Amino acid sequence: MGLKEVKAKAISCLDSGQVQHETDRSGDIDKKNLLVTAQITLDEVKDLISSTKGTQHEVSQHHMEKLVEVHTLKPVKKEVKWYIKFYFLEPDIIFISVHLSE
Predict the structure, then answer these.
(1) Which of 35, 70, 93, 95 has its CA 20 to 30 A from that of 63?
(2) How far apart are CA 77 and CA 82, in angstroms?
(3) How far apart are CA 13 and CA 24, in angstroms?
(4) Could you tell me the pTM of the whole model?
(5) CA nearest 85: which of 94, 69, 102, 72?
(6) What's the farthest any 2 CA atoms get from each other in the chain?
(7) Which regions in the chain score pLDDT beneath 50?
(8) Into how many domains does the chain fold?
(9) Mapping DSSP to helix (H, G, I), strand (E, B) and coil, where does residue 14 land?
(10) What's the pLDDT at 88?
(11) 8 A C-beta contact, residue 82 and residue 48
(12) Is the distance from CB of 81 to CB of 100 less than 8 angstroms?
């Protein structure tokens, strides 16, 4: 799936409320997923996803489910670098992390 499709599908999931969050085992959920802790809104995440360019998108395998494609977006908004990591599990988008890059 190319970036254009990924962005469209992610925004569609966000618009329809089909959003889940992967459980954080490290205990850093308040730092690693600002969306689940409401420190960033769905609209702000949609804006970040929309602004992502091809060079800011990577695809890898999920660490446990090798057939699942994980998308990592690293958009820059107002000189602030973000890190957004998610995958799709029909019909939902599952966020692994949404945080400021370190």
Answers:
(1) 35
(2) 8
(3) 21
(4) 0.88
(5) 72
(6) 35
(7) none
(8) 1
(9) helix
(10) 96
(11) yes
(12) yes
What tokens does 43 get? 């609209």
Determine the residue type at 50: S
Nearest Cα neighbor of 8 from 50, 43, 60, 64 is 50
The CATH code of the domain that includes 29 is: 3.30.2310.40
Neighbours of 47 (CB within 10 A): 14
Q: In which domain, by residue range, is 20 found? A: 3-100
Identity (one letter) of the amino acid at 96? Answer: I
Which pLDDT tens digit goes with each residue over 55-71? 999 998 887 777 889 99
- Name the one residue in this structure whose structure tokens are 């702000």: 44
Judge residue 51's burial from the number of C-beta atoms within 10 Å of its C-beta, 0-12 exposed, 13-18 middle, 19 or more buried. Answer: middle
